[in-house]
User: Which sequence fits this backbone?
């Protein structure tokens, strides 16, 4: 049986769309095959179990998202951004992200990882990628002891995105929240140096 080299990518894209549109319970091989326009056999050829498919879909989404955000970050690396500039840029990027089905799917998959232990390593890898990207940005900005606030910054952005998704409101001031967080981290780092 000859399997198209693009079948795997079509299957993953279809899975993200279905999960983001109708949730994980709607993710059946028939639904995937219809959406991806592939044979039923090609799904099990590439992904022996639904957990394998969900892990690959989640990891693939985050790898692509991290690549895209890293490219955006690199455009500003040598521009001497202030914290205010970086916070405003982050808010603009976050608000420009339309909540397509493919962007809703990772939230579904992160929640599913709480129930399905097979997804936890992939979810952890995804958050590690977000943490690494955030660390790179904070280090570029010169945030002292950036490692100590990375997970909190990621949690604030993810939480505000989840709130935006759940309420339909884009009224949150992500820039203000990030500035408050970063200024507090800098003050704590400076205070720690003074007291040591």
Assistant:
């Amino acid at each position: 049986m000859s399997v198209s080299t693009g079948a795997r990518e079509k299957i993953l894209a279809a899975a993200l769309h279905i999960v983001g549109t109708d949730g994980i319970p709607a993710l059946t091989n028939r639904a995937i095959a219809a959406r991806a326009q592939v044979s039923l056999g090609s799904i099990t050829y590439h992904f022996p179990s639904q957990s394998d498919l969900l892990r690959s879909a989640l990891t693939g989404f985050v790898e692509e998202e991290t690549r895209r955000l890293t490219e955006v970050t690199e455009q500003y690396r040598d521009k001497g951004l202030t914290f205010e500039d970086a916070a405003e840029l982050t808010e603009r990027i976050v608000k420009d992200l339309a909540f397509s089905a493919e962007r809703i799917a990772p939230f579904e998959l992160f929640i599913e990882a709480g129930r399905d232990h097979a997804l936890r390593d992939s979810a952890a890898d995804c958050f590690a990628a977000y943490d690494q990207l955030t660390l790179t940005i904070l280090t570029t900005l010169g945030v002292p002891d950036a490692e100590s606030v990375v997970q909190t910054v990621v949690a604030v952005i993810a939480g505000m995105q989840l709130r935006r998704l759940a309420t339909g409101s884009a009224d949150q001031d992500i820039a203000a929240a990030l500035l408050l967080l970063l200024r507090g981290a800098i003050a704590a780092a400076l205070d720690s140096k003074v007291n040591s």
Observations:
- The mean pLDDT is 84.
